[in-house]
Amino acid sequence: MGEPIIYAKNLTKKFGAFTAVDAISFEIGKGEIFGFLGANGAGKTTAMKMLIGLWKPTSGEATVAGFDVYREAEKIKRNIGYMSQRFSLYEDLTVVENIQFYAGIYGLSNQQIKTKTIELIEKLGLTEVKDARIQSQPLGWKQKLAFSVAILHDPKIVFLDEPTGGVDPITRRQFWDLIYEASHHGITVFVTTHYMDEAEYCDRISMMVNGRIEALNDPATLKKQFGVATMHEVFVKMARPASL
Amino acid sequence: MSNLAVSTVQLVKTYGDLKALKEINLEVNEGELFGLIGPDGAGKTSLIRILATLLLPDGGSAQVLGHEVVKDYKVIRNKMGYMPGKFSLYQDLTVLENLQLFASIYETTVEENYHLIEDIYSQIEPFKDRRAGQLSGGMKQKLALSCAMIHQPEILFLDEPTTGVDPVSRNEFWEMLKKLKQKGITIIVSTPYMDEANLCDRVALIQDGNIMSIDTPQAVVSTFPVPLYAIKSSNKYLLLQGLRDYPHTASVLAFGEFLHYTDKRGELPELELLQYLKERNHSELEISQIEAGIEDCFMAFMEKEN
User: Fold this and answer.
1) Best mutation target, B130, B168, B207, to test chain A (most A CBs within 10 A)
2) Are B169 and A165 an interchain contact pair (Cβ–Cβ within 8 Å)?
3) Are B253 and B300 in contact (CB under 8 A)?
4) How many CA atoms within 13 Å lie on the side-chain side of B37?
5) Are residues B121 and B266 in the same domain?
């Protein structure tokens, strides 16, 4: 693996006496689909917020897309993509307006914005609804559009925080097609999910328990290591809930 | 046949142009653990809110425990417990204060009905003086369930109690529901997680305001119309694309480490497909015929409806 897209060494975040993220270390390569798993409260969100440049770590080191999380947080924000179930698109803007808004934020030129807008609308089959407001549209395709918008500026890495929660099973799979395609084009994908079948789609998985990464490997090796047939069983065996 | 805890006839709910529920007919027996299975936007919350007398239907009728949801809403409210999808307790009251508040609204006390909630509440009792807003997700869920149970309801409506909850906590929650069911309480629970269907006595699969199927989970999966195959190789993404180009493919969908495949011809000549894939440089191939699961069926129903 060449230059890692994410590099973390002993990355730690404390809140007072409580250690939310406890010296986690890993490297993630170009185009890799990296599943970031753990029980509620295990520290996933805190770790992710440090990696996307929102929170300063307490100690340890990390770079994302080549930028340092302490000194270059603003550069990180400009060079990554991010989407979550809660924050994705502006509901009272239309499809086209959302694309143009994000493209503008990411600093694309007017010409690029024009081309990207047309490309995206065709690719996702949204020609008929391009001037409809987002709020009137089904969740599933909102999420597909949100993902495409999050990688509009061709970032090296995209962070997905439970992107498919509540999405119907067919759309969920179409969403993963988009993830595979992005990965195929060299974009690194960092994803959290509570669907264990989706964990199987990842190249490698890390399991967080009480702030620490307790396992990190590809799904097949993890299943073998725990002597079980599915990632669901791996999860249940490992992730004793951090709290009640 | 036992009595009906819930029955609806051509129940309709619309929001402007959007038909959230399209003539829903549903019967739930007393004492049943009944699952409403479907993605966001399917109509699960609208249905639960109508049954819980919190939302007026736009057509059709619904009865809960033999009472009309519109006319007799006050009677129903005394006999039901409701846990909304979003945590809705008082964040700045303590755990115990929340519970006492709910008990007093229903003119009972925590002591009187403690036995009903003991299994669940005892797990959060050590934190009874903590403000509800300070609890972890799993603890909030247990408190919400305790509050919904404190007046000894005959029926419980739980709206997506496990959404966004990790697999371990989800298992624990379903264990709690099983215990409540043993007390004879009817439970109607909605979930977007298809695998949870197997934990229900019966389920309704909901999509776009329609019930696509109502039956026991075993009966639902037995209706899967064609042979189903699980296929894997060393590279799932390339295999998915390869199978999409295979002329006999009826459907191919990712399922964990496997792809689930159906063939236009019904039976799949496995050797022929193996040969086809090998010629296209797929390696470490495995094919086996498998039983369909709820999610396979859900997607098959979705395809049929479209």
Assistant:
1) B168
2) no
3) no
4) 31
5) no
Residue B306, pLDDT above cutoff 80: no
Selection from A10, A14, A9 nearest residue A56 by Cα: A14
Query: Which chain B residues have a beta carbon less than 8 Å from that of A36?
Result: none
Residue A62: count of CB within 10 angstroms of its CB: 23
From residue B155, alpha-carbon distances to A70, A228, B32, B38, B185 in Å are: 53, 38, 10, 21, 6
For CA atoms B80, B86, B90, B95, the dihedral sign is positive
pLDDT, tens digit, 9 for 90 and up, residues A85-134: 766 789 999 999 999 999 998 889 999 999 999 999 998 888 989 999 98
User: Angle at CA A145, nearest 5°, toward A144 and A146?
Assistant: 90
* Strand runs labelled E in chain B: 4-15, 18-29, 33-37, 59-64, 67-68, 80-83, 155-158, 186-191, 202-207, 210-215, 228-232, 249-255, 258-263, 286-290
Residues B144 and B86 in one domain: yes
The correct CATH number of A6-238 out of 3.30.360.10, 3.40.50.300, 2.60.120.260, 3.60.21.10 is 3.40.50.300
The DSSP letter of residue A3 is S
Tell me the ipTM for this assembly.
0.83
- The alpha carbon of residue B18 is apart from the nearest alpha carbon of chain A, in Å, by 9
Instruction: Pick A239's closest partner by Cβ from B124, B168, B237.
Output: B168
Residue at token pair 């179409």:
A174
Closest Cα of chain B to A30: distance in Å? 17
3-state helix vs strand vs coil in chain B, percent to 5: 35, 30, 35
State mean pLDDT over B21-48: 96
- A162 to chain B: which residues are within 8 Å by CB? 164
Helix (H) or strand (E) segment spanning residue B54: none
- Rounded Cα distance between B196 and A77, Å, is 38
Structure tokens at B271: 């050797």
- Which of B217, B241, B269 terminates a domain? The answer is B217
pLDDT in tens, B224-283: 999 999 999 998 889 999 999 999 999 999 998 899 999 999 999 999 999 999 999 999
- State the residue for tokens 């959302």: A98
Question: By residue range, what is the domain housing residue B163?
Answer: 4-217
Last residue of a domain, one of B175, B194, B217: B217
- Whether residue A242 has pLDDT greater than 50: no
Residue contacts between A and B (CB atoms, under 8 Å): 102
In Å, how far is B40's CA from the nearest CA of chain A?
5
Q: Please report the pLDDT score of residue B2 as a whole number.
A: 60
Between A95-105 and A110-123, two packed helices, what is the crossing angle to 10 degrees?
A: 140
pTM of structure? 0.88
- Tell me how many domains chain B contains: 2
